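ugh finaly. both done.
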Amino acid sequence: MRYLLGGALKVVGSGTGAWREAAWPLVAAIAVGVAVAGWMRPVGHVQALTSLADNAFAVCTVPLDGTNEGVFILDFETGDLSGAVLNPATGRFGAAYKHNILADLGFKPGQLKNPRFLLVSGVIELRQPAVPVASSVLYVTDSTTGATAVYGIPLNAPQAGQPIASKLLPLDIAKPRGGGPARPGR
């Protein structure tokens, strides 16, 4: 019988000893595979969150539930935080969100000059929210003061294929310079 082992052709006889000699590399490979598979553990659920900014806008993606994600854009000039979610059935944006963050971060009308913001998302399971919310939140930070506002993302069921427009839910504000956490509107 002829076997290709380790790149070299080897001719062995047809007796019982020849079979053992030819089969041991296969048995060894299976044993190593079983041992390695036993040591491997599942990694768990992995999510990719993205965030990017330039001088005028910040954008990030955020998981909303087990299958969908949203994209959120912060306009530095206006302070508008807008978001959209693709409808998986139509491939078109089926949900929209909007909230102006300026008052939440302590800006007064006309005060905004050369604003700098950061926008990132985080994953959290909020317990007992007033309305159903996504398993993620949005954090907006004023880069000049460090004040950070966090927003919940409401989950609304579409009405017969109609687009949904919702307001983001201000949850809390942290002010590292000149104060601790402060609730929106207080």
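ok and the 2nd:
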Amino acid sequence: MLCVDEKPSIQALERAQGYPKLPNGRSLTGQSHDYKRHGTTTLFAALEVATGKILATHSKRRRRVEFLDFMDRVTAAFPNRQLHVILDNLSTHQRNEEWLEAHPNVKFHFTPTSASWLNQVEVWFSILQGQSLSGASFTSLKQLEQHIDAYIKACNGKAEPFVWTKKKVRQRPFKGRRITQL
């Protein structure tokens, strides 16, 4: 079972770094709001649910052609295996019957609308963003792609399946009132 999706428009931003001085003479590292754009990439990724490993590729665009090229890479990485692929309902993931007929060992399964959180690769994209991309500075698109590839290699080196748990929901006490009285 594989969870597949794309993270579009990842920007290679070169951030202006600043070292503001405090009144006591110490300086802080930081960044200003200024940046230079060096292009964007779309990251196609497949998360193997059983192992937690990621297979990914970069693309300039996010069309059906690029999606099916990525799926060709995925099927080549898992030869002679039955693949169940979890996808969202993006239009590029739909109406691929011709490709599926040519790959009878692949079955697409779609998450319900507005339930992208069911696709575990979305969780991984969030981890990538939070641990590696937020606040980072890149002087070129190539540097951004190399950074993401190095992060994926590191993740695959210590990969393990996600253990999804629901966080405890905090509710205010109603103090004997009925919900309709709120």
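summary for the 2nd one i guess: The two ends are 45 Å apart (CA to CA).
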